[in-house]
Automatic annotation (TrEMBL):
Entry's Gene Ontology molecular function annotations: histidinol-phosphate transaminase activity; pyridoxal phosphate binding
Family note: Belongs to the class-II pyridoxal-phosphate-dependent aminotransferase family. Histidinol-phosphate aminotransferase subfamily.
Organism classification: Bacteria, Bacillati, Actinomycetota, Actinomycetes, Actinomycetales
Catalytic activity: L-histidinol phosphate + 2-oxoglutarate = 3-(imidazol-4-yl)-2-oxopropyl phosphate + L-glutamate
Stretches assigned to the Aminotransferase class I/classII large domain: 25-363
Name of the protein described by the UniProt record: Histidinol-phosphate aminotransferase
Keyword ATP-binding listed: no
Keyword Amino-acid biosynthesis found: yes
């Protein structure tokens, strides 16, 4: 029995994270399988060496150069121009999201999400003493707008988080649905101290935004009309820099200024800032793999369906597929063959992330060996 005064609510909690196993084919945490090229590595090395000469000083607290580079990147990627002051960054979008909950959540306040979705959201809420409420997504994993409107009216959330493309389902939300949520969020946030109405903050988590199919828009397009919208992105996935820990969001200046209040001073190290800037200067090269990963993903969906599995449409770099009578057994059997995927999402389903063509070949071979095609009864389960 521990005598440490662990805060109520944390008893029995374990640290979040997928198993970190050293196996040949790792398709479990949605990373980009391609390591940075020599040229990218050289740029990062030079930038970090330069930053090292000033490491006796604290880094730039508001990192304007990096925010400007991220704004440029968003312009190129989505055709939406935001000012550097509308960009915020931290050590992974996980930390960005924590800033959002620190600024807008808290005791007596509610964060609303729609499941199945990313399981870290509940941890940001727990860690900021924010009440966490989830409602279900529709059967196709989009939103049922009646459910959304009812939940917003009932819970008056301070923050609504929607992943699009969603993890673990791969589903992107139509912009009309995002617009409907933004409209429903107006005036339905918690009452301010003086009794005034507030607009609930709507976070669209576009961690997988770059993988969306052609013609699928980004919620960045809605920023100019919605000061209560934040669109979150990361360099961890499409950009191939998960080890860097750099996430960011775009929002109104007003919203970003609220986040600046709660960040720790100097939260983004000079080394991180330098490495991120260097990586962004190679954005074309780093993004060139995205098209082939998308193609590989679409081929995988087709292949899984040909084998008789249900595979969900995906706008991300992973595919949710099943159903399996015993998904844990399939997961283990794949692992014994050196292929690591993820047990996550609705009962009976598994998530596999897109790797290199060789890795996907290994996955197909292993899955064929460990699990025969389902019967039609199983498929309709
Ligand atoms: C991977 C992921 C993130 C990103 O996290 P980082 O902290 O930027 O690495 C955010 N949201 C979702 C839904 C994710 O799957």
């Amino acid at each position: 029995m521990s005598t440490l005064p662990l805060r109520p609510g944390l008893e029995g909690e374990t640290p979040y994270g997928a198993p970190e196993l050293d196996v040949p084919v790792r398709l479990n945490v949605n990373e980009n399988p391609y390591a940075p090229s020599e040229a990218v590595v050289a740029s990062i090395r030079d930038a970090v060496a330069q930053a090292a000469t000033g490491l006796n000083r604290y880094p730039d607290r508001d990192f304007p150069a990096l925010r400007a580079a991220l704004a440029d990147y968003l312009d190129v990627e989505s055709g939406v121009r935001v000012a550097p002051e509308q960009v915020w960054a931290a050590n992974g979008s996980n930390e960005v999201m924590l800033h959002v909950l620190q600024a807008f959540g808290g005791p007596g306040r509610t964060c609303l999400t729609f499941t199945p979705t990313y399981s870290m959201y509940s941890e940001y809420a727990r860690d900021t003493l924010t009440e966490y409420v989830t409602e279900r997504r529709a059967v196709d994993f989009t939103l049922d707008l009646d459910v959304v409107r009812e939940a917003i009216a009932r819970t008056r959330p301070a923050v609504i988080i929607l992943a699009s493309p969603n993890n673990p389902t791969g589903t992107a939300l139509p912009l009309d649905d995002v617009r409907a949520v933004l409209d429903a969020a107006r005036g339905t946030g918690p009452l301010a101290a003086d009794g005034a109405r507030t607009d609930a903050v709507v976070v669209i988590d576009e961690a997988y935004g770059e993988f969306r199919r052609p013609g699928v828009p980004s919620a960045l397009e809605l920023l100019s009309d919605n000061p209560h919208l934040a669109v979150s992105r990361t360099m961890s996935k499409a950009f191939g820099m998960a080890g860097l820990r750099l996430g960011y969001l775009a929002a109104s200046r007003e919203l970003v200024d609220c986040l600046r209040v709660v960040r720790l001073p100097y939260h983004l190290s000079a080394v991180t800032q330098a490495a991120a800037l260097a990586a962004l200067s190679h954005r074309e090269e780093l993004m060139s793999q995205v098209a082939s990963l998308r193609g590989e993903r679409d081929d995988l969906v087709t292949w899984l369906r040909e084998q008789g599995w249900n595979a969900h449409e995906s706008d991300s770099n992973f595919v949710l597929f099943g159903p399996f009578e015993d998904r844990d057994a399939v997961f283990k059997a794949l692992l014994e063959r050196g292929v690591l995927i993820r047990v996550v999402g609705p009962d009976g389903y598994l998530r596999v992330c897109i790797g290199t063509p060789e890795e996907m070949g290994a996955f197909r071979t292993a899955l064929t060996a460990v699990a025969g095609a389902p019967s039609s009864e199983e498929r309709n389960a």
